[in-house]
């Protein structure tokens, strides 16, 4: 069976966000930001009558929407055992190993179901959100999704998952 790949990366499929990550042991970065860039590849067979594996316009639209959700936000991990994130009225408080560290307006935060906001985890998160979009529209024939997130020039993580 023939297989094709379509890839989308655009200057608007980006997100400028703040984050910090924890390392093994007792090390935690300070808050800082990146101009993240995403790139997605879908693999699959050709669709009947259209002769494409997936529509570029639809893919660009879905990717932009998923990047916009986390653009201009502080990215906070909800599943990191060393970081405690709690909502307090209109604010979000963040503690590291029990010690208060930050307080942000809630509207400036993206609370993410990840253990650490590494590019690997952000790539997996974007892939799972895009997969939900694809499943909602019933995209047939796709066999894999590959999500790349770059946080600095030449500093990239790629997450790949089989579909179906
Ligand atoms: Zn960073």
Describe the protein's architecture and organization.
The protein is α+β, with helices and mostly antiparallel strands. Helices cover 20% and strands 45% of the residues. It has helices at residues 56-68, 119-137; strands at 4-8, 14-19, 22-23, 27-28, 32-44, 74-77, 83-88, 91-96, 99-105, 109-112, 142-152, 155-162. Strand 3 and strand 4 (27-28) form a beta hairpin. The chain is elongated, with a radius of gyration of 18 Å. Residues 19, 32, 34, 151 line the site of zinc ion.
Strand content: over 45%
Average pLDDT over all residues: 96
Report how far apart the termini are: 16 Å
Order of helices and strands: EEEEEHEEEEEHEE
The tally of strands reads: 12
Structural class: alpha+beta
User: Ions, cofactors, ligands: which are bound?
Assistant: zinc ion
- The gross shape turns out to be elongated
Task: Determine the number of helices (DSSP H or I, runs of at least 4 residues).
Answer: 2
């Amino acid at each position: 069976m023939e297989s094709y790949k379509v890839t989308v990366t655009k200057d608007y499929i980006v997100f400028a966000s703040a984050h910090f990550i924890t390392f093994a042991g007792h090390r935690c970065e300070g808050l800082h930001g990146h101009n993240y860039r995403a790139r997605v590849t879908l693999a699959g067979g050709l669709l009947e009558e259209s002769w494409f594996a997936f529509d570029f316009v639809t893919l660009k639209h879905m990717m932009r929407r998923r990047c916009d959700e986390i653009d201009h936000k502080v990215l906070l991990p909800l599943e990191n055992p060393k970081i405690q994130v709690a909502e307090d009225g209109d604010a979000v408080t963040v503690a590291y190993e029990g010690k208060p560290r930050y307080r942000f307006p809630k509207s400036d935060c993206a609370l993410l179901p990840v253990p650490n906001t590494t590019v690997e985890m952000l790539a997996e998160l974007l892939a799972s959100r895009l997969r939900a979009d694809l499943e909602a529209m019933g995209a047939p024939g796709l066999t894999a999704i590959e999500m790349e997130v770059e946080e600095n020039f030449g500093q990239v993580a790629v997450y790949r998952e089989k579909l179906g």
